[in-house]
Specification:
about 150 residues, alpha+beta, 3 helices
Length: about 150
């Protein structure tokens, strides 16, 4: 069967995807953007999003709405006084505070490199528990990671 891809604007995402999540469905979405690399790659990987059960934990990947209305998927770096602070796996700047009311989805599992992985998977665990703690070392760690896992041409 042919795979179909849909591109959502922020408005169409809010109208089409968020109501499905609110109904309790798990929604698959193809990753778009590079802020979650190297764990999730644009156009290659798919995330499975469902309604969050609070409180969320440091290392969880969640969808939230920024003050400007933009929808973002990043990892929780810190939780302080009920507010959440996020960072993309490819980023160095922590964003927040984000109130729980702005968080509408959490990633339960991913299809990464053609294989399904959840929080029990070693790579998922590494990015959730180690990568989130080594922000200043990420450029060096990324070079090591690419040397170990990227195909050489």
């Amino acid at each position: 069967m042919e795979e179909k891809n849909f591109v959502f604007t922020t408005d169409s995402f809010k109208e089409s995807v968020i109501p499905l999540i609110d109904e309790g469905l798990t929604v698959p979405l193809k990753v778009s953007g590079s802020s979650m690399e190297p764990f999730l790659v644009d156009g290659r990987d798919t995330v499975f999003i469902s309604k969050p059960k609070f409180p969320l934990k440091v290392g969880d990947i969640a969808f939230f709405e920024r003050e400007n209305g933009r929808i973002v998927m990043h990892r929780i770096k810190r939780i302080k006084k009920g507010d959440y602070y996020f960072i993309g796996d490819a980023e160095k700047v922590i964003e927040g505070p984000v109130s729980a009311e702005k968080i509408f989805g959490v990633v339960r599992s991913v299809n990464r490199k053609g294989k399904t992985a959840d929080k029990k998977d070693l790579t998922f665990w590494f990015f959730r528990n180690v990568w989130i703690r080594i922000i200043p070392l990420r450029p060096f760690a990324l070079k090591v990671y690419e040397g170990l896992f990227k195909k050489k041409t």
